[in-house]
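Consider the tokenized backbone below.
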């Protein structure tokens, strides 16, 4: 187990930096609404949804509307329905780790697992599980730090909920710079802007994800050929 930890930990350092900052932002926001560190701990431990937790803070400050809460959660986290499908084959043979791997699948953990090869001789489930656990622990630690600090110091937190948008922009730019073929990225931008104009910003997310899935499915053969050519260059 220690050998697996040593192999997995260095790969999670970029997530450590991002999750500590974002977790602190979440903890500060939650504290500003009057909730203590224990709520931050429980939410980050059992919900662990990043942007979904930021949305949950807003829902916790208004009268409970279960239907709206379900809809907003679905819209915010709809992307997991689609890219999670690509993990079905990868998670085969992960044994007892599989339920936790499904639960702990975030955008950043997904990127790490997709781009990281399991070292020779190591169990796949354990390796992926350690990566997921480390990422999860970073988020929990950041949330706790933010909540505790927020309870001690009074701050102006206007605009702090923009940090999740900023994170997704950074991820997009990094993947754009690392990839030679931008077909998938441009497809995502085009479909998203199209539905944003058609249905408005309140309802565009879910149809956008569906549209992107359909477009990438149609382009799958072409993308696979391009990917193979890039890898063999």
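A designed sequence for it:
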């Amino acid at each position: 187990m220690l050998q697996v930890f040593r192999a997995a930990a260095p790969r999670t350092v970029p997530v450590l930096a991002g999750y500590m900052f974002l977790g602190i932002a979440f903890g500060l926001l939650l504290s500003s609404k009057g909730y203590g560190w224990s709520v931050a701990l429980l939410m980050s431990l059992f919900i662990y949804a990043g942007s979904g937790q930021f949305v949950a803070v807003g829902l916790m400050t208004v009268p409970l509307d279960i239907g709206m809460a379900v809809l907003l959660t679905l819209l915010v986290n709809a992307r997991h329905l689609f890219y999670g499908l690509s993990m079905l084959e990868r998670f085969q043979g992960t044994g007892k780790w599989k339920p936790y791997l499904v639960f702990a699948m975030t955008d950043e953990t997904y990127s790490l697992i997709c781009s990281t090869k399991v070292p020779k001789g190591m169990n796949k489930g354990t390796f992926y599980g350690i990566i997921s656990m480390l990422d999860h622990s970073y988020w929990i630690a950041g949330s706790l730090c933010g909540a505790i600090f927020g309870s001690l110091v009074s701050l102006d937190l206007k605009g702090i909920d923009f940090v999740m948008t900023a994170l997704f922009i950074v991820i997009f730019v990094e993947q754009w710079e690392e990839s030679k073929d931008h077909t998938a990225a441009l497809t995502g931008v085009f479909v998203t802007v199209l539905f944003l104009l058609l249905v408005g910003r309140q309802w565009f997310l879910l149809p956008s994800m569906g549209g992107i899935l359909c477009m990438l499915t149609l382009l799958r053969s072409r993308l696979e050929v391009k990917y193979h050519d890039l890898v063999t260059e």
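Residues 2-178 form one domain.
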